[in-house]
Write a structure and sequence with these properties.
alpha+beta, Transmembrane emp24 domain-containing protein 10-like, transmembrane, 9 strands, Emp24-like, Jelly Rolls, GOLD_dom, membrane, five-stranded mixed β-sheet, four-stranded antiparallel β-sheet
Length: 209
């Protein structure tokens, strides 16, 4: 029987300059996934290397939160992938180890080395410099300009999210207030009805005048 184990790793550290790659062990008959939230219209590049073990094949798949496959590779060993995000959501990179049907023996864990970059870090500025014939200083200014634009977009998105959360909180508070007033009116109406009902009942039983 195949045994699948879930594994979640957050990758914000990968967006920082100087962070080349991460590595982890992938046992046979297991599945490990790495997730990260990424903004809309952002270039994402990745490079992976899977250590080979006899009888093991590793399937690599990159999907979004809707389950759309952005990249897929059977028997992944070493390679690269790239895609541009369509919307702000969580993207998932999964490695799944499968043992060959003929191999029922125990094999060592596979070593997975993965490097993921997005935004400014994913841009190949050497190709840009060649295409646009930029000097080293001009290229550095171009990179800083892209980085500044990325930071501005991040702040704009955080401001938008803050406004949405504030609107949601205000709307929720207003609804709670209306519900509280409605509940109080219902309780007062019920109490008044009980008083009149009991008064008529006691009068009918001639317990009060």
């Amino acid at each position: 029987m195949e045994l699948f184990t879930g594994f979640l790793l957050l990758l914000p550290v990968l967006s920082l300059p100087g962070v080349a790659a991460i590595s982890f062990q992938l046992p046979s008959h297991s599945r490990k996934c790495l997730k990260e939230e990424i903004h809309k219209n952002v270039l994402v590049t990745g490079e992976y290397e899977v250590s080979e073990q006899p009888g093991l094949k590793t399937h690599l798949q990159v999907v979004d939160s809707a389950g759309h496959t952005l990249y897929s590779k059977e028997d992944a060993k070493k390679g690269k992938f790239a895609f541009t995000t369509d919307d702000y959501e969580i993207y998932e990179i999964c490695f799944e180890s499968k043992l060959h049907p003929a191999g029922n023996f125990r094999v060592p864990d596979q070593l997975i080395i993965l490097s993921v970059k997005h935004g400014v870090e994913a841009q190949n500025y050497e190709d840009i410099a060649k295409a646009e014939k930029l000097k080293p200083l001009e290229l550095e200014l171009r990179r800083l300009e892209d980085l500044s634009e990325s930071i501005v977009k991040d702040f704009a998105y955080m401001k938008q999210r803050e406004e949405e959360m504030r609107d949601t909180n205000e709307s929720t508070s207003l609804r709670v207030l209306y519900f509280s007033v409605f509940s109080m009116l219902c309780l007062v109406g019920l109490a008044t009805w009980q008083v009149f009902y009991l008064r008529r009942f006691f009068k009918a039983k001639k317990l009060i005048e």
